Prior knowledge:
- This protein is mostly helical.
- It has one domain.
- Helix content is 51%, strand content 4%.
- It has 11 helices and 2 strands.
- A two-stranded antiparallel ribbon has the order 1-2.
- Helix 3 (54-64) packs antiparallel against helix 7 and helix 10 packs antiparallel against helix 11 (200-222).
- The two termini are 22 Å apart.
Amino acid sequence: MTTTGTQDGGGMPPTSPTSTGSGNPKPYALRFSVDYPDRPLDKLTTALRILWVIPILFVLAGVTGFSGTWESSSNSDGWGFFAGAGSGIIFLAPLLMIVFRQKYPRWWWDFNVQLLRFQARVGMYFLLTTDKYPSTDEEQSVHLDADYPDVEKDLNRWLPLVKWLLALPHWIILIFLYVAAFFVLIYVWFVILFTGRYPRGAFDFIIGVSRWGYRVQAYALLLNTDVYPPFSLE
């Protein structure tokens, strides 16, 4: 993986990705996309998706320790799983290593990224973007890439202590976006049952909200960048 990010001498982090020599902004330190389903989706598995997803949720729970994921889901028929994706990330240990040793052990990083990918596949299956059952290791139609940081060069060692607070405006906006996405998902469920197709506009919105959420997680939880996440679905 390549390394990205900018060194911040102190205070607030940059508010957008840095520019390359050609004048184009660098991609954010976490990229997320999902292949649009260009074929009819299975109506039966769509109708019963909330039941179909239960076995893989147990598998995911075995990895994450079930740290509040289903508890948050009960408030909105499962949508909390999507909103809470990333709850199993190893957060405190890398934070302490960055602050006191300016290191991010590679094995912790690899675990965090692979776990985030697995959660994304399960989340996208629940969100009806595919009817292929989530794999524990294959990429399938869900693509999530993140840049491993050069801690001494790219990260302010003290910023992880306050990133959760700096990200507060994003968390507030995301609450409203998740609520809107929940109602969009209900609409999508009915459309797929009748037509077998995922409306493109709804798909772009659902993926955009997910992308926004994963970028905030990269900043506040994965801790691989000091670049402040953009307020954007793109």
